[in-house]
Amino acid sequence: MNIAEVSGHVSGMKSGEGSGGHSKCQSVIVCIPTFNRPEGLRLCLDSICRQVFPADARIAVSIVVADNGDGSVASSLNGTAEQFAFPMRAIHVPDRGLCHARNALFAEARGKADFLALIDDDEIASPSWLWSLVETARSHDADAVVGPVFPRYEPGVASWYLMSGMEHNHPKLMRLATGAMSPKRAAHNTLIRSALLEEVPCPWFPLALNFVGSEDRAFFDRARAMGRDRVVWCAEARVDESIPLDRTSRAFFRKRNLQRGSSEVLAEALFRQMPGGHAPARWKGYVRTVAVFAKAVLLSPCLLSPTYRYRCLRPMFYAVGRLHGHVGNKQELYK
After folding, report:
1. What is the pTM (predicted TM-score) of this model?
2. Residue 278: which pLDDT band, with cuts at 50, 70 and 90?
3. Of 2-6, 45-49, 103-107, the least confident
4. 8 A C-beta contact, residue 106 and residue 116
5. What are the residues facing 5 on neighbouring strands?
C-alpha cells in the first residue's frame, strides 16, 4: 500500500513540500470498518478526503476500509481508488463481527505508518479532525488521542430519547482541555501510535467479544499493562455520528443499556484470563454491581417524571445487564 505525502490543504496536494515547525513528516493510516452502510461510508470517506492542514504541515495520509459484508463495497472502492484524495485500499473481511474487522485493519496497517486514525462508517469527521489528533499526539507525547462524538439525528426522533442522554458526551469529558488525560477509551474517533500494535498481543480485539462489545477496552487494558496508557483528550477532533431512527426505539434503548452492563462484566472476566490482561478482582465486580443497583433504587422516584424517566432507566437497565453478565448471559447487540 503506497502512502502519498501531502502538504497543505487536500484540494492542493503537492509531494515533498513542507517547512517551519512541522519538519518531520507524520504518516497516518485512517482505518474504517464497514458493514452494510454504503451511504454512511460515502459520507465518512468524503469527510476524510476534505481534511485540511496548515500550510507548513507535512503529513502522509492513506485510508484502509474493511468491508465486513459480502465484499461488494471493497470491490467498488478498489475500482475507483484513484478518485480519492489519498491512497485508498479496501479489504474484504468475510468473518462477521467488529473484532474480525478491526483486527484485519490493524494487520493491514501494521508497520506502515506512525499513527492509525480510527473512525466508524457512521461518523463524519470535522475538517481539522485528523490534524488535530496528530498534533495533539505529537505535542503531548501521547500513546493515543480520543476526541468527542456528537450525535446527528434523523428527522422524527422522539423527545424522550433526546432527554435520555443516550448519545451525549459525558459532562466531565466536555470540560477537559486538549492534552488532559482522558478517561475514555474507544476504537473510534481515536488516534493510536502504531507501536502499540507491536506491544499488545494478538489478536488485538479478542474474538470472544466479537458481538458483545467492550473490545476496545480489551485493547487499551492490555496496552496499559504494557505501560502504554498515556491517552489524552483532543476537544478539537470532533466527529458527528449519524443516529438512525431504529436506534432510537424503546426496544433498542433497553437492549443497548443491558448490553453495556453485560459486556463490561464479561470483558472483565475475559481480561483476568488473558496474558497481559488486567481487571478488578471478581469480588470488586460484584461490589460494583451492588452499588449500581443501589443507585438505580435511589433514582426510582424519578420514573414518575416524564422529563427524567428514561435518563433514570439507563442505569437501571445497565444494572440488570451487569447481573446478566455475572451469570454468563451475553447481550449480542452487534450480531
Report:
1. 0.88
2. low
3. 2-6
4. yes
5. 60
